Amino acid sequence: MPKPEALKAAWVYVGPVADAGSTMAQDRGRKAVEAELGRQVQTSFVEKVPEGAGAVGVIRDLAAKGNQIIFATSSGYIEPMLKVAAEFPNVKFETAFGRQTTENLRSYEARHFEVAYLAGVIAGRMTRTNALGFVASVPIPEVLRSINAFTLGAQSVNPKVRTKVVWVNDWFDPPKESAAAQSLMNGGADVLLQSTQSTAVLQAAEANGKRAFGWNGDMSAYAPKAHLASCVVDWGPYYKKEIRQAIDGTWATGRTSVGIKEGQLAVVKIADAVPADIREQVEKLSAGLKSGTFAVYTGPVVDGAGKERLAAGAMADQDWLDKMDFFVKGVEGKPPAAPRTNLPATAGVSSK
After folding, report:
1. What is the DSSP letter of 134?
2. Angular region, 131: left φ>0, alpha ψ -120 to 50, beta rest
């Protein structure tokens, strides 16, 4: 009896796989699938794919080549994925942070704001200027949640903290990220976090004698003097589950959110300079997030204009999180309504 053919699975990446951040983390998830499922699966990826309409051709080509499940790893791919999913009803599609679903398109995301909050707890104690900096990618709710959580975490240990934000309107652009970090430090920020993908922010902090965090991957080796901790994500468990379900026929549409509770987010490599009581607090908060006894967004939550956005004692649900369009009190300015800027149109293909 002939052996069943390997399931063909493909990933679409917004940045390069060597970014040391989000795309590398996604690709480690793909490699985890290969390592566990072996000959049952054949994987490939396309890196540096522009978000928006420019991705349609790439995704359509992957479907036409016989891939049975396609993961697009950024929210800017949702419209192209919806379009191609309608053209290929027998192919399974999944979009990170996409929200919309159809019969053959599901959505998945990580609760990055959880680790941003923990980073904020560290930053609130380590800052000397009470000014934090955040290099922000694109103005979507997922990014706003991390900016606000970083600030709330810092304020929980240091009420004097304020956060300055510079937007680069890209996920991966090291020169822009470095310039944004420099602008923040010139403005007095001495501890930085980011939602962008490269190591540029951390390295800029080291060059200026400031402190920063790794994001989406362990970046401690890139700027050991500046590194306070890294906020990491492990996509392996999620991707292995989805591929197994695609193989055994149990895959279904829907929406999944993963975080510390699921063991897929963590703050690692906390610097020796961080006081023991803060380390213990981070550990305690992590345990609370894992058990469900603590939630980052529990009211009262007040915006920069003093308006209550979440009542005292209330716990944010997914709908509330999805609609976040404000900065909490303590973040300077207001979120922009600017459209996202796509990455360069060059795309490189690799497969195994």
Report:
1. E
2. beta
- Assigned CATH for 112-233+264-322: 3.40.50.2300
Q: Which residue shows structure tokens 């300079």?
A: 273
Domains 7-110+235-258+343-351 and 112-233+264-322 share a fold: yes
Q: Which residue has the tokens 């996920």?
A: 171
Distance CA 130, CA 44 (A): 46
Tens of pLDDT along 132-190?
Answer: 999 999 999 999 999 999 999 999 999 999 999 999 999 999 999 999 999 999 999 99
Domain positions in the chain are 7-110+235-258+343-351, 112-233+264-322
Centre a 10 Å sphere on the Cβ of residue 282 and count the other Cβ atoms it contains. Answer: 21
Query: What are the residues facing 211 on neighbouring strands?
Result: 191
> Using one digit for the tens of pLDDT, what is the confidence trace for 297-312?
999 999 999 999 999 9
Using a 10 angstrom Cβ sphere, with 0-12 exposed, 13-18 middle and 19 or more buried, the burial of residue 169 is middle
Q: Smallest Cα–Cα separation from 344: which of 172, 216, 181?
A: 172
Q: Which residues fall within 8 angstroms of residue 175, CB to CB, at 6 or more apart?
A: 200
| Three-state helix/strand/coil letters over 185-240 | HHCCCCEEEECCCCCHHHHHHHHCCCEEEEEECCCHHHCCCCEEEEEEECCHHHHH
Distance CA 221, CA 18 (A): 14
Does the structural domain 7-110+235-258+343-351 have CATH classification 1.20.1080.10?
no
Burial class (CB in 10 A: 0-12, 13-18, 19+), 257: middle
Q: Can you tell me the distance from the alpha carbon of 121 to that of 118, in angstroms, rounded to the nearest whole number? A: 5
Orientation angle between helical segments 200-207 and 174-186, nearest 10 degrees: 40
The 10 Å Cβ neighbour count of residue 280 is 10
- Full-model pTM: 0.94
